From TrEMBL, chain B:
Membrane spanning stretches: 28-49, 55-78
Keyword Ion transport: no
UniProt protein name: YdbS-like PH domain-containing protein
Top-level lineage group: Archaea
Keywords for the protein's UniProt record, in alphabetical order: Membrane, Transmembrane, Transmembrane helix
Record's keyword annotation contains Iron-sulfur: no
Domain YdbS-like PH: 81-160
Pfam families: bPH_2
Length: 526, 173
């Protein structure tokens, strides 16, 4: 394979740097801007140009090389076998200019390993296809001593998909087979039924922006009062009675929630519009986004675990989402998980998960009822804290009837029960399936060969009840956000047993993998 | 010093064998206790500052708080030392540790990415060192075995390295 040396295309780097330098300069004093901004402009543009000319990348036969840096130089070589996923993202301006950002993820470090900014559209697609092709070629050449390929689900997954994809790999560089497309109804449902807490910031920013624009010194914008007045809200903050103030707070909270909900839905629609998942060789390729386009590829043999995520509303409607996790870090979500199916009917998702991992659906086992008692006590303690807080508040403020806070205890038994009822695990032949959570229920399928470490944890309280939690760590980076998959509060005996089983099956899976050549995941899962 | 117990692949190994246990006691406890004592000192300074700056704190109270903290630190260190176990089993490094939460971890040799020997400043003063085993996992990706003599730490590092290579250390990430 010829080593192809290419310069970075695109020209928006200087603009980018100018914007940054201008905003940095801005806050000092308004008068300075007039003479500092041009300096910042020149310096930024100069640095941008220098950065641009000093940046180079090459796609060689067995590595991707990137060298960058103006003052301190860094050159980096990434072997294909180590690449987790390749993502291409395009903002609005970038789409107008016809450039894209290519991010190459590996398992090492906490950051994207190589980010190629301002490559042209075609170039980005070409890089991605090329990396995929070369990765496949590298895997092919080492196929006999195939060490990088997981294979444990040899029995449960028919060998056909893996075997056939291996063969047609070389010719599928351009046209991926479509596996799943998010329909308009599903997208709408996904947008309306998923809540992004990050969106809560959006109304705040908007309000800050607005207050800055019109009222200036006033801490609370006028529309907040206007909205609350029909319900008996105060006209001003000064000298307002407690009742009207509470009304004001309640109305504002409602407003805020509505705003958050709407902006979260809008964000979801914008980022998952036109979601498509396809298969190219042994890789998943996806595409999504309305304004900012994302696309990328996830090698099936880099998938660490598969998770079905659903919240109560989605459960009620009978829908769920399917996510795959790699050890890389995505450009959008800040971790290595990608929705393979953001939203689809529950039975379809279950079927996808089953086909994908080969994990047969089986009955979930529950922790002993003792665990439920534990949650009861735990939530009761939280309730006590709430009441104590209300009491404390009553001491320092005019709040009376603090004992009304005791209503939280009504919620304790159902909360404990729901927490308990949603816990479950399956110790399968090839997989460990763990289910937790009520508000965000996640069912994670972990193939034994992906286990990194197993740990049995027992806190003081658990030791008293002879319970233990079993933590199964994988290399998936999603765990930073979602937490390490854990089977909570099972009998110590059971925990130790699963602990041993996990270790044993890891070893036997690794042995199997050395013999056979199966990736244990079916790429054609739909 | 008996070093051969670390090379032996099987059998529970406490932090030291009985003979050098007393020796290690005199060192390991200060080692883990030092940081705690430091916390006690910081607490004392904070209280004194508070006393000077905002409200009067009786000297007796400061003394009691510091003494309590120190007692807790010592108790914690002793418990931690007593609870610490590690074992080289045939497929994994097995550890048991913890005071409030007892954790039993198994690190399969196949998953070992690299092994470090570390000498912190306090450890260096006391002539101790730790072995840190890294995996590709996300949480608890590094497992530390503290309170070893430098020689033992090195030989353990060597053993782990060999075991990791023996188990066909191909990566799975």
């Amino acid at each position: 394979m010829l080593a192809l040396q290419r310069g970075v295309t695109g020209f928006s780097m200087p603009f980018f740097f100018v914007m940054i330098s201008a905003s940095v300069v801005d806050f000092v004093a308004i008068g300075w801007v007039f003479w500092l901004a041009p300096i910042g402009f020149v310096a930024g543009a100069g640095y941008g140009l220098a950065h641009y000319y000093r940046f180079g990348y090459a796609v060689t036969a067995d590595t991707v090389d990137v060298s960058s840096g103006v003052f301190s130089r860094r050159s980096r070589e990434i072997p294909y076998r180590r690449i987790q996923n390749v993502d291409v993202s395009q903002g609005l301006l970038q789409r107008v200019l016809g450039v894209a950002v290519v991010s190459i993820e590996t398992a090492g470090g906490g950051d994207t390993e190589a980010t190629l900014r301002f490559v042209s559209d075609d170039e980005a697609d070409w890089i991605r296809a090329e990396i995929r092709r070369l990765t496949a070629a590298t895997a092919e050449s080492t196929a006999d001593s195939d060490a990088d390929r997981p294979a444990s689900a040899a029995e449960s997954v028919p060998a056909s998909p893996a075997a056939s994809t291996r063969r047609d790999r070389s010719e599928d560089g351009t046209a991926p087979t479509q596996l799943f497309e998010l329909e308009a109804g599903e997208l709408l449902l996904y947008a309306l039924s998923s809540f992004r807490w990050g969106a809560a910031v959006f109304p705040l920013v908007l309000v800050l922006f607005l207050t800055d624009a019109d009222s200036g010194t006033n801490l609370v914008p006028a529309f907040v009062f206007d909205a609350a007045r029909p319900f008996g809200g105060p006209a001003t903050l000064e000298g307002a009675a407690v009742g009207p103030l509470l009304v004001l707070i309640a109305v504002s909270l409602v407003q805020w929630s509505v705003f958050t909900y709407v902006s979260s839905a809008v964000y979801t629609i914008a980022s998952y519009y036109g979601f498509r998942l396809g298969r190219a060789g042994d890789d998943f390729v996806y595409e999504r986004g309305l304004l900012q386009r994302y696309s990328g590829s996830i090698p099936a043999d880099k998938v660490q675990s598969v998770t079905i995520a659903e919240n109560p509303l989605q459960r009620l409607l009978g829908y769920a989402g399917l996510w795959v996790e790699t050890a890389g870090y995505g450009p959008d979500s800040g971790d290595g998980s990608q929705a393979t199916v953001p939203m689809a009917r529950r039975d379809r998702v279950s079927r996808f998960a089953e086909n994908l991992t080969g994990a047969k659906p089986s009955r979930f086992q529950s922790p002993p009822p003792l665990a439920r008692r534990r949650y009861l006590v735990r939530y009761a303690l939280i309730g006590c804290v709430v009441v104590a807080a209300a009491f404390g508040l009553a001491r320092v403020s005019a709040l009376e009837r603090w004992y009304l806070a005791a209503v939280v205890f009504v919620a304790v038994p159902p909360a404990a029960h729901l927490r308990y009822a949603n816990l479950g695990y399956v110790v399968g032949d090839d997989h460990l399936v763990i289910r937790t959570g009520f508000w965000k229920r996640r069912t994670t399928v972990i193939p034994y060969y992906r286990i990194q470490t197993v740990a049995t944890r027992r806190s003081v309280f658990q030791r008293r009840l002879e319970l233990a939690s079993l933590t199964v760590d994988t290399a998936s980076s999603r765990t930073f956000v979602w937490g390490t998959p854990t089977i909570y509060d099972i009998d110590l005996e059971t925990a130790r047993e699963i602990h041993g089983t996990g270790r044993e099956r890891l070893q036997s899976a690794l042995r199997d993998r050395a013999r056979t050549d199966d990736i244990g995941l079916s790429v054609d899962f739909t | 010093m008996t070093d051969d117990d670390t090379v032996r692949p099987l059998g529970t190994v406490a932090l030291s064998t009985w003979i050098d246990r007393i020796w290690a006691w005199s060192r390991f406890i200060p080692a883990s206790g030092c940081s705690g004592s430091l916390a006690a000192v910081v607490l004392a300074v904070a209280l004194v500052v508070l006393d000077q700056w905002r409200l009067t704190v009786p000297t007796v109270a400061i003394g009691i708080v510091v003494a309590l903290t120190l007692a807790l630190v010592v108790a914690y260190a002793v418990r931690r030392y007593q609870g610490w176990r590690f074992e080289l089993q045939d497929d994994a490094l097995y550890l048991e540790r913890g005071v409030v939460t007892v954790v039993e971890t198994a690190v399969p040799f196949v998953r070992v990415q690299h092994v470090d020997t570390q000498f912190g400043p306090i450890e260096r003063v006391l002539g101790l060192s730790s072995v840190v085993v890294y995996t590709a996992g996300s949480r608890n990706a590094d497992v530390r075995i503290p309170g070893l003599t430098p020689d033992r730490a090195r030989s353990l590092q060597e053993t782990l390295r060999e075991l990791a290579i023996e188990s066909e250390a191909e990566d799975a990430v």
